[in-house]
Amino acid sequence: MIIRNIIASLLLLLAFTGAAAAQNKPYKIGYDETKGLFAGVTFVHYDRGHGTQVEYMAKNGKTYLLYPGNKVIVRGTWKLDRTDKKDVFNLCFKYPSSSYNPETKQMGGSWECQPAGFSLIDVVDSAEGDVLGLAKSEAVPFVLQKRKARLSELLRKVK
User: Fold this and answer.
1) Which residues, 6+ apart, have CB-to-CB distance to 48 below 8 Å?
2) Considering the domain boundaries, does residue 56 fall inside one?
């Protein structure tokens, strides 16, 4: 099911890109469309530094991060900010000042922003809704390992 959704999304992206290229215009999406890509979605990210991370981005601007090795969910806030460029939006996260990012060696408490598209580069899987129930508990549903994992594998751990 997830693979089918990814393929459908890629085909739609190609169709839009092709149509826009045929008109010699890049395909651009607006603020609401961009926000809709993130709001109410669970993402599985992977990079060599952090490893696998799972984050549910609620529609109300709250975020719930399952980080490798943690025994509690890191609760934070997210927002989409407009920039001085009309078609570029920053995706911003703010985690508690008591949180610590072992990769950047920075404490939380401040907004960290980057162009929204960059946040999708390391996405391994995604699904609509809080599929792992991260918003419902302080405790993690399982201790996440750093190694690369797919959402289907993680869902089996909570059932």
Assistant:
1) none
2) yes
3-state SS, residue 5: helix
Model confidence, pTM: 0.82
Spatial separation of the C-alpha atoms in residues 85 and 72, rounded to whole Å: 38
Taking only the tens place, the pLDDT of each residue in 96-139 is 999 988 888 899 999 999 999 998 999 999 999 999 999 999 99
Residue 17 placed within a domain: no
Alpha-carbon distances of 138 from 13, 106, 131, rounded to whole Å:
37, 22, 16
What total number of domains does the chain contain? 1
Distance separating the N- and C-terminal Cα atoms of the chain: 18
Give the full edge-to-edge strand order of the sheet including 89-94.
112-115, 89-94, 74-82, 62-66, 51-57, 41-47, 123-128
Tally of CA atoms within 13 A in the half-sphere of 113 that contains its CB? 12
**Position 82 in a domain:** yes
Q: DSSP 3-state assignment of 122?
A: coil
Q: Which CATH number do you get for residue 46?
A: 2.40.128
Structural domain containing residue 131 = 30-147
CA 101 to chain centre: 16
- Residues 121, 147: Cα–Cα separation, whole Å: 18
